Each structure stands twice: as structure tokens, then as C-alpha cells.
């Protein structure tokens, strides 16, 4: 049981990174982006296609990230151009449609679960130490460090810099931001491009652990959204914690035979309880403030 | 008002014609002149895609037609895509039986067809010879007999290979099981236990998506020497390597036997795959020559599923040729129920339909090993559990 929890914890960094990408997008452009992992997977597969063709890893990585940035920017531009005044749910619905479309295109281009499996470069695969029979590779530490960097870096960017302030204004009141002179559409497309590139890097980092084919990687959106829920799509530190909790829960639920069959559901049930608990507090606060 | 009248009239006409149409269909069971219509339900779109299967069956039929057909009548394949959608699958079977008046089904490859349509096939007294039997009902129905051992037969063969051929004492099983298939897998494990007297060191039938490290750590703790596995390959082997499991033999199910998967397995890991037919990666193996020539000539992808398609079409044609007189649904069904076993080189045991209440004629598996980014065919022919080779 302890070993399984430790094993689960080593997955937590990757889950946290995925959740952070969702929260990042939401905080910066106020869209719950269902197409996020599909865009990242697209860039990741551009990268491996280029390495297959003989290009070196670093150039492929840069070109893959650029292609994800471009795709994400195109998606962002479409949302800014045609859906700027719409509600969040409409924008989310657009990204759901794009997720379906991108997954279908990706399946055609890069193959299915068995025919399109790819071996992603795993530069951080070397073991660092062993805890309770679980070998912890360098990638776990890199994922955690990357997750902490995003949490801290973006937190500071949003609260301590002029750019962060403009980005917050853009996310919360795009129309007002434009009135006060913030170049909203251009900034928004830039943010979309940046998030696309970061997501691609995250996907490449988690691919050796979480899946080597297009559909599995683009399907990681469900995990990403579950983790983002823990942070209520706002809190970066809570999202980071959510990733680790999800990993631990997965590990624990796979170790207990009686709940093994439902291990896919257990983490989500716990998240549901967490959300209910938090909303209960909010209702309590609201009732008292009246 | 006028529209209401039209609707009422249309309903009246329908209520008259539909029962008449149905009666006509079930009486005729396919016409006695013109082409012999053969149905197939294939996954072309959706999660389970086998577009090469109907193309290959059609290629076999074209070959037969070019040589004069069956008793002067041409074979015509009517394939419908069910997109792994239960509603579409049921509708496809009904349409093929009632509207297209097919005499039988040959070369189906759908993940939902058998379970959904088994009752229809029994009721309509029509037989189905799937190219790829996927769900448990394909192997436990009176009117369905696939040409592959299927996931259950293959599981027994893989366990048998691990314990008897590789001589591993601690055999473990990590499976992703589709809803409703758990019983079949349990029965397959039980069959292996009955044959060998051995039990699993660890069994997990709930391997899910996400990081596989937790399952691998459990395997390590249980001291598994061989692990029978059927889920996503890439991350499994990457993490098994990280966990230092280079000395464990991993046996993969037939769905993992693809060129892409051979490339993702790290060279220092020990990975085997069970194959349902002769390994498709070696065209010199018995029966593979004809298949390779056929699919190459038609530009069809070389996959294990296309092997199943050739075999299903071949055995179908062979049985059809034994029918004396009219070829109708009734005579076709009778011929299959009374047929003699056919020795087909691509599989481990003879294929037969016969009169039984369930049919799983093909047993055993061949094994390949991942080496240098490809699959190496292992000697020793088919491993048929319980049969000394």
C-alpha cells in the first residue's frame, strides 16, 4: 500500500503540470480550454515526426513547440475574432468542438493506440534514488520543479508585473481593457501561443509516463481538468497540490483489491467531495455575510 | 390538416407493407438467382477501426468471381460500418438480413456486433463467420464461429506459454478489461490453472489509463517473473525499464502486435506478443504467402486483421462450394452446421462451425519477440494449451 502511494506520488508532478496548464489558460484568457492537450499532443507529434525524419531532438523540439504555439494562436484568434463577446460556456463549447476535430485529424495523421505508438525521448529517465522499492527517476523531480516554477513564476507575473496586470485586466474585462488602451486581441493571441508552447513541452515531458500515441495524449484533458478543479480553476498552488493528491489516490486505490475495479472513479469522487466541502464553506460564508 | 392526412395515409401504407416485407424476407432468405449477397458488419470509423477487413474479403470474393463464381453466381459483399455504435450495429444487421437479404455474414469485424446481434442471428437462422471475434459473445453463440482464438483463448495460451515454455514460476496478469468481459478472462485463467495446476502470483483486471508505475511496483513486490499484459505499450515499458524490470518477461496480447509497438519497446526489455494467426510480419510462414500476395495486389494494409479477413472469406467460400443446389440462407446455414473441419495453415487448430451451441474452434497462439525495433518470429509453431507440441 505504501509503495503504491509512493508510486502514485511520482505521477503527481505530471498530473499537476497538466492541471496547471488548464488553470493558466483560464486565468490568462478566461477560457476553459478542452482542446489544450490535443494542441499539445499535435506539437509533440510534429516533434517526433521530425526526429523520425532525421532532424536532431532540439531543433525538433523547437519546431514542435512552435507548431503548437501556432495552432493555439489560431484557436485563440478565432475565439477573439468571433466569440469575444460570448459567455465562457460558449467559448468552452467551441474548444470542445475543436478537441473532437483535432483528435479525429490527429488519429488520421498519427495513427491510433496500437498503430501510432511512438517512443518519446526520455532524457530524464535515469534513476535518482529508490524509496520503498519504487525507483524515482529524474523526470519526477523535473516535473515537480517545472510545476513549482509555473506556480511561482505565473503567480509573481500576475501579481507583481505590469504585464501581469494587463493580462488580468484582459482576462476579467476584455472590453474595458481595450478601452483603457491595452491591445487586447494581440495580447490574447500572444497568450494563447505561449500557453500552446508550454502545453506542448508538458506533453513531451509526461509522454514517457502517460502515453505514446495521439489519442492517449490528447485524452489527458480529463485528468488535466480534474486536477484544475481542485484549484477551482484559479489557485495555482492548490492545483499543484491537486496533481499530487490525484497521483496518491490513484496509487492507493490500485493497491486495495476491493476498490481496484473502481480506481478510475475514486480520485474523481474524492475531488467531488473536496469541491462540495469547499462550496459548503462558501454557502456558509454567504449566509453569514447577509 | 392536409399534412395530418398525408401522415395517416403513410402510416397506413407502412403498417400494411412492413409486415408483408418482413414475411417475404424471412421466407426467401436470399434469392436463388443473381449475385449471392454476403453481409459484414465492420468498424470503419469509431474507436475500433478495421477498414482493411472488408477490402480484403472483397478481394477474395473478386478472385472467386473472376474464376466463375459459385455455381455460376457471383459473390457480393455488403459491408456496413457500425462505428462501434450499438444502435448502428443492430440496425446494420437488421438491414442486411431484411433488406439486402444476405445469405450469411462473413468477415465481420466489430467490437459490438456479436453481443448485440447474436439473438437476431439465431432468430433469423443465419450464420456469421467473423474475421475478428472481439467480444465474448462471438465465442459463445450458436450461430457465430470466428476464425481467431479471441482474447480468452489467447489469454490461456499466453499464460501457458509463460509457465510451460518460458518455465516461469511466478506468472502475473495485468489486464484492461472491457465491461462484461471479466468473466471470460476469469474463465481463461481457470482453464490455465486446470491444465497446469498453477495459480497467478498477482492478478489485476483493472489496469487503467495514466501512469503505469503503480502497477509495475505491485508486480515487483509480488516477485512476478512473467507478466501477461494487454494495455498501452509505450509508457508501460518505459516505466518498467525505470523500475529495473529488465529480467521480467512481458507477454503482450495480439492487439499490441504492431510495427509501431515493436519500435517503442526499449532494446533491453524482454517482450513477447501472442499472435492469433501466423505472425503477419513474416510472409514466408504457412498460409501467409497467399494472404500477402492478395493484399499487396490490392494495396491493402498488411495487418493481422486482414489475415483474419482472408481466412474468413476462404473458409466461407470453401463451405459454399460444398452446397449442392440452390444457395439460400437455409442451405448455407445447413452447410455450416454439417460441415467437416477445415485445416487452414494460418491457425493452430482446424476450423469448423458445426451444430454446437457455442463455437470457439481456433485455439492456441504463436509467439514473437521484440528485437531491434521489430518482431522476431519464435520457432516451435503454435502453442496450443494442453497439447504437447
Explain what the structure shows.
- Chain B: Belongs to the leucine-binding protein family.
- The complex is a heterodimer of chains A (about 290) and B (about 400).
- Chain A has a single domain (about 1-290), classed as ABC transporter involved in vitamin B12 uptake, BtuC (Orthogonal Bundle), CATH 1.10.3470.
- In chain A, about 80% of the residues lie in helices and about 5% in strands.
- Chain A contains 13 helices and two strands.
- In chain A, strand 1 and strand 2 form a beta hairpin.
- The longest helix of chain A is centred in the first third of the chain and has 28 residues, at about 1-30.
- The N and C termini of chain A lie far apart (about 45 Å).
- Chain B is of the alpha/beta class.
- Chain B folds into two domains: about 30-150 and about 290-340, Response regulator (Rossmann fold, 3-Layer(aba) Sandwich), CATH 3.40.50.2300; about 150-275 and about 365-375, Response regulator (Rossmann fold).
- The longest helix of chain B is centred in the first third of the chain and has 27 residues, at about 1-30.
- The chains are: A mainly alpha (about 290), B alpha/beta (about 400).
- Chains A and B meet through helix 1, strand 2, helix 8 and helix 11 of A and helix 7, helix 8 and helix 9 of B.
Summarize the structure.
The complex is a heterodimer of chains A (290) and B (389). By secondary structure, chain A is mainly alpha-helical.
Amino acid at each position: 500500500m505504501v509503495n503504491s502511494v509512493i508510486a502514485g506520488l511520482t505521477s503527481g508532478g505530471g498530473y499537476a503540470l497538466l492541471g496547471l496548464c488548464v488553470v493558466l489558460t483560464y486565468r490568462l484568457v478566461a477560457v476553459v480550454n478542452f482542446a489544450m492537450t490535443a494542441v499539445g499532443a499535435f506539437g509533440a507529434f510534429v516533434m517526433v515526426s521530425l526526429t523520425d525524419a532525421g532532424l536532431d531532438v532540439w531543433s525538433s523540439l523547437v519546431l514542435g513547440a512552435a507548431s503548437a504555439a501556432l495552432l493555439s494562436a489560431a484557436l485563440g484568434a478565432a475565439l477573439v475574432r468571433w466569440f469575444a463577446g460570448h459567455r465562457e460556456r460558449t467559448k468552452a463549447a467551441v474548444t470542445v468542438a475543436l478537441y473532437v476535430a483535432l483528435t479525429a485529424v490527429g488519429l488520421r495523421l498519427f495513427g491510433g493506440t496500437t498503430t501510432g505508438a511512438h517512443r518519446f525521448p526520455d532524457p530524464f529517465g535515469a534513476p535518482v534514488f529508490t524509496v520503498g522499492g519504487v525507483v524515482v527517476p529524474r523526470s519526477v523531480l523535473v516535473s515537480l520543479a517545472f510545476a513549482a516554477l509555473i506556480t511561482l513564476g505565473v503567480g509573481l507575473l500576475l501579481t507583481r508585473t505590469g504585464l501581469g496586470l494587463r493580462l488580468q485586466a484582459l482576462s476579467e474585462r476584455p472590453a474595458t481593457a481595450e478601452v483603457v488602451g491595452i491591445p487586447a486581441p494581440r495580447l490574447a493571441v500572444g497568450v494563447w501561443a505561449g500557453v500552446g508552447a508550454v502545453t506542448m513541452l508538458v506533453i513531451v515531458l509526461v509522454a514517457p509516463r502517460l502515453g505514446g500515441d495521439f489519442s492517449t495524449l490528447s485524452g489527458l484533458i480529463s485528468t488535466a481538468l480534474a486536477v484544475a478543479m481542485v484549484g477551482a480553476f484559479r489557485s495555482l498552488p492548490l492545483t499543484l497540490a491537486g496533481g499530487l493528491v490525484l497521483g496518491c489516490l490513484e496509487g492507493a486505490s490500485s493497491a486495495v483489491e476491493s476498490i481496484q475495479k473502481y480506481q478510475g472513479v475514486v480520485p474523481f469522487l474524492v475531488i467531488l467531495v473536496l469541491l462540495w466541502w469547499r462550496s459548503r464553506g462558501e454557502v456558509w460564508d454567504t449566509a453569514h455575510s447577509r | 390538416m392536409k399534412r395530418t392526412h398525408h401522415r395517416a395515409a403513410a402510416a397506413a401504407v407502412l403498417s400494411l407493407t412492413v409486415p408483408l416485407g418482413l414475411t417475404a424476407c424471412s421466407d426467401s432468405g436470399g434469392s436463388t438467382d443473381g449475385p449471392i449477397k454476403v453481409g459484414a458488419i465492420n468498424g470503419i470509423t469509431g474507436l475500433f477501426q478495421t477498414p482493411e477487413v472488408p477490402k480484403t474479403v472483397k478481394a477474395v470474393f473478386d478472385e472467386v468471381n473472376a474464376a466463375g463464381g459459385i455455381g455460376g453466381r457471383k459473390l457480393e459483399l455488403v459491408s456496413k460500418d457500425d462505428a462501434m455504435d450499438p444502435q448502428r450495429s443492430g440496425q446494420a444487421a437488421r438491414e442486411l438480413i431484411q433488406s439486402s437479404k444476405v445469405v450469411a455474414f462473413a468477415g465481420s469485424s466489430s467490437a459490438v456486433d456479436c453481443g448485440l446481434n447474436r439473438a437476431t442471428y439465431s432468430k433469423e437462422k443465419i450464420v456469421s463467420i467473423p474475421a475478428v471475434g472481439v467480444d465474448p459473445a462471438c465465442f459463445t453463440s450458436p450461430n457465430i464461429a470466428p476464425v481467431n482464438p479471441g482474447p480468452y483463448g489467447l489469454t490461456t495460451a499466453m499464460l501457458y506459454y509463460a509457465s510451460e515454455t518460458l518455465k516461469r514460476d511466478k506468472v502475473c496478469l495485468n489486464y484492461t478489461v472491457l465491461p462484461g468481459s471479466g468473466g471470460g478472462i476469469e474463465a481463461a485463467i481457470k482453464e490455465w490453472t486446470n491444465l497446469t495446476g498453477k495459480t497467478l502470483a498477482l492478478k489485476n483486471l483493472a489496469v487503467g489509463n495514466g501512469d503505469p508505475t503503480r502497477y509495475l511496483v505491485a508486480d515487483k513486490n509480488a516477485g512476478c517473473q512473467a507478466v501477461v499484459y494487454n494495455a498501452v505499450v509505450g509508457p508501460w515499458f518505459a516505466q518498467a525499464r525505470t523500475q529495473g524490470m529488465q529480467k521480467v518477461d512481458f507477454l503482450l496480447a495480439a492487439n499490441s502486435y504492431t510495427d509501431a509497438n515493436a519500435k517503442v519497446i526499449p532494446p533491453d526489455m524482454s517482450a513477447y506478443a501472442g499472435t492469433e494467426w501466423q505472425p503477419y510480419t513474416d510472409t514466408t510462414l504457412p498460409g501467409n504467402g497467399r494472404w500477402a500476395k492478395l493484399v499487396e495486389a490490392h494495396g491493402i494494409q498488411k495487418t493481422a486483421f486482414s489475415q483474419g479477413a482472408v481466412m474468413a472469406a476462404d473458409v466461407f467460400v470453401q463451405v459454399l462450394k460444398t452446397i449442392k443446389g440452390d444457395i439460400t440462407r437455409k442451405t448455407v446455414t445447413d452447410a455450416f452446421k454439417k460441415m467437416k473441419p477445415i485445416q487452414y495453415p494460418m491457425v493452430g487448430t482446424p476450423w469448423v462451425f458445426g451444430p454446437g451451441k457455442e463455437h470457439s474452434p481456433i485455439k492456441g497462439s504463436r509467439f514473437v519477440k521484440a528485437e531491434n525495433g521489430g518482431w522476431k518470429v519464435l520457432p516451435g509453431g503454435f502453442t496450443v494449451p494442453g497439447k504437447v507440441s
